[in-house]
Write a structure and sequence with these properties.
Strand order of the largest sheet: 1-7-6-5-4
Helix content: 10-25%
Number of helices: 1
Strand content: 25-35%
Shape: elongated
């Protein structure tokens, strides 16, 4: 069909999500609090290794794409499409990779 295919890898995907639950972690090594030995840290953003991170990223990118006019496929939740200036654009989302396919 003469379409061009582009692949993008987002390096910081799991750091861009917001978590909805309260998540506590132990103080990282090097964080010195001499008088607060029993305190812990509360996370405000997603981090690597957190079970909620992929879901928070997907929720955020889904909101952005649908807010930008993309339509999510009913057959596959990772497939989005849009018609821009008479040209059809398909976007496939896989974790932190995008595959874009569109006519020239």
């Amino acid at each position: 069909m003469g379409w061009k295919i582009h692949q993008l890898d987002v390096k910081t995907t799991l750091l861009k999500g917001f978590i909805e639950e309260e998540v506590y972690i132990e103080k990282p090594k090097g964080l010195e609090t001499f008088y607060q030995e029993t305190h812990v840290c509360i996370l405000k953003r997603a981090i690597y290794g957190l079970k909620q991170s992929p879901h928070s990223w997907y929720t955020r990118i889904n909101s952005y794409l649908t807010g930008s006019g993309f339509t999510k496929s009913e057959a596959d939740e990772s497939l989005y499409h849009i018609l821009v200036e008479g040209k059809f654009l398909i976007l496939i989302l896989y974790v932190d990779d995008f595959i874009l396919n569109g006519d020239e």
